[in-house]
Amino acid sequence: MSAPIYDRVALIGLGLIASSMFWAMKRGGLAGEVTGYARSEATRETARRIGLCDRVCDSAAEAVADADLVVLAVPVGAMGAVAREIAAALKPGCTVTDVGSVKKHVIDAVAPELPEGVHFIPGHPLAGTEHSGPESGFAELFDNRWCLLVPVDCRSSGQVARLRSLWEGMGAHVDEMDAEHHDLVLAVTSHAPHLIAYTMVGVADDLRRVTDSEVIKYSAAGFRDFTRIAASDPTMWRDVFLTNKDATLEILGRFTEELFALQRAIRTGDGQHLFDYFTRTRAIRRGIIEAGQDTDAPDFGRAKRAGK
Ligand SMILES: NC(=O)C1=CN([C@@H]2O[C@H](COP(=O)(O)OP(=O)(O)OC[C@H]3O[C@@H](n4cnc5c(N)ncnc54)[C@H](O)[C@@H]3O)[C@@H](O)[C@H]2O)C=CC1
Ligand SMILES: O=C(O)C(=O)Cc1ccc(O)cc1
Known about the structure:
One of its GO terms (molecular function) is prephenate dehydrogenase (NAD+) activity. Pathway: Amino-acid biosynthesis; L-tyrosine biosynthesis; (4-hydroxyphenyl)pyruvate from prephenate (NAD(+) route): step 1/1. Helix content is 52%, strand content 13%. By secondary structure, the protein is α/β, with parallel strands linked by helices. The chain has 2 domains: 6-177, Rossmann fold; 181-269, 6-phosphogluconate dehydrogenase C-terminal like domain (6-phosphogluconate dehydrogenase C-terminal fold). The chain is globular and about 65 Å long. 3-(4-hydroxy-phenyl)pyruvic acid is lined by residues 101, 126-130, 190, 229.
């Protein structure tokens, strides 16, 4: 096995993403010693019991001391406070990254807390599940998924390449993007869809005519997917919406306009509008498949290697 990419990695926050990173780094021999810290004693105890991290520390400062790479894997709203907590203990020249679902807020909250000479390279793996906590992670989570890096300082380019190698070693495809664009893209592809799923499940729950057992028994695939997404961690998603406010509101505004137009077409019996709309959206799905950009499609890797 080749030399690890980082001798010492510290994971702050030991939930789905950090635990998946730990198992993926171990699978690939990508890190020497991995230390970990989570705020709750119960989470640290669970981590010790299941062998998550080579060493679980009782403070964030202890976990990051001597680390070459520090990964902030806490809810987006907690990133700034965690950065403040570790700042004085960071090794000069180390890299700090994060995995938060929102980038502009994290950069504004974390960058001012870090000392000169530390490389801050925000990141976001586009991979997850509705599960959370230290026992939810698995080594394959990032396989064939995208990870977006959002470099903020050109002096860190060598360290960006190193972090890219780590994500590639964990199975991901890596792209770089600026923070504002990231937050708009994610508002369209992830944040607004999650809010719609939360709403749809809430509506079903409110409909007293539909009993719980009917909703469960007759769930077609679409609604089943909504219930899975709507089971995601409430703290994490509260923070996503509060910190990616502008982009999410922009997308929801457009969504509402289109929904009203569809609602009107149904009311007035305008089948042409519905047909044209659904024809357009079907072409988008087919375009994604043809471009080899569906990471779930079995031939995604082949399409990517062919340079599509
Ligand atoms: N769950 C998902 O599908 C994805 C999540 N993300 C992002 O990754 C980050 C972590 O998410 P998950 O791993 O899913 O969360 P999780 O809920 O599974 O784990 C979060 C961990 O952070 C700890 N924590 C919370 N506040 C803390 C604090 N102030 N100090 C120290 N530890 C603290 C919790 O105890 C827990 O161990 C979030 O920022 C989220 O936006 C990114 C991609 C996918
Ligand atoms: O479970 C799902 O369907 C997801 O969408 C996972 C996910 C959640 C949040 C992210 O920032 C990235 C990926």
